[in-house]
Amino acid sequence: MPTTERSSKRTLLYGGTFDPVHRGHLHLLEMAGEHTDYERVILMVARLSNFKQESRPVSGEDRVRMLEIAIDEFRALHPEFPLEIIISTMELERKGVSYTYDTVCDIYREYPIEGRLGFLMGDDLLSSLDHWYRYDELKKLLTFVCFSREGGRTVEGIDADIRMIEAPILKASSTSVRSGDLSNLTDGVREYIQKHGLYR
């Protein structure tokens, strides 16, 4: 795992099951580097999403390894990327469902954060934001850095600190990968999947 720098930094949280990580994930990471002023991003691998409790992702070990491979390729492709990248297994090590509120509290305890922690997300999640676990407390801890995926969404009626960012979209999904379409994977992740017989 990358060495964690303990200096206080403007920090962005980017969570997901990453089952598997694909070019869409990496594109959003790239856009965060181009369109925000954060200094560090924590990639959080979820154990089990609260909104996908019926899903059965491949092992956490496999998902972390694929993410490490993809980030190594990303760094090679973008050597001037301005954010420190940390891959965290905090949620994998915690039992049960991965609630964002619990993770955010743990991050504030674990890392020195300058200002308010940012939470990277797509605008498709806006409509369900007030249904998140302990939302009233969570919204006081985060700035929601929201990239427009669908276009035309607004933040009217949402009483949270939301930063909307318009940026190019790269459509890709982990679902299509699990269905056999490996076209939106990096070379290293594709090779890992094929070598270990995942998603058959």
What is shown here, in short?
With 200 residues, the protein is of the alpha/beta class. Helix content is 32%, strand content 16%. It is built from seven helices and six strands.
Characteristic key phrases:
single chain, 200 residues, alpha/beta, Rossmann fold, six-stranded parallel sheet, 7 helices, 6 strands
Description:
The protein starts with 10 loop residues before the first strand and ends with a helix. Strands 3-2-1-4-5-6 form a six-stranded parallel β-sheet. The chain is built from seven helices and six strands, in the order E-H-E-H-E-H-H-E-H-E-E-H-H. 32% of the residues lie in helices and 16% in strands. It has helices at 23-35, 60-77, 90-93, 100-110, 135-138, 174-178, 187-196, and strands at residues 11-16, 40-45, 84-88, 117-122, 142-147, 162-165. The protein has one domain: Rossmann fold. Helix 2 (60-77) runs antiparallel to helix 7 (187-196). The longest helix is centred in the middle third of the chain and has 18 residues, at 60-77. The protein has 200 residues and is α/β, with parallel strands linked by helices.
- Determine the CATH topology: Rossmann fold
Fraction in helix: 25-40%
Low-pLDDT ranges = none
CATH architecture: 3-Layer(aba) Sandwich
Largest sheet: 6 strands, parallel
Strand order of the largest sheet: 3-2-1-4-5-6
- CATH homologous superfamily assignment: HUPs
CATH level 1 class label: Alpha Beta
Straight-line distance between termini: 28 Å
Oligomer: single chain
Mean pLDDT score: 90
What is the gyration radius calculated from CA atoms?
A: 16 Å
Number of helical stretches of at least 4 residues: 7
What is the total domain count?
A: 1
**Principal-axis shape:** globular
**SSE string:** EHEHEHHEHEEHH
Count of individual beta strands? 6
**Which structural class should the secondary elements be placed in?**
alpha/beta
Strand content: 15-25%
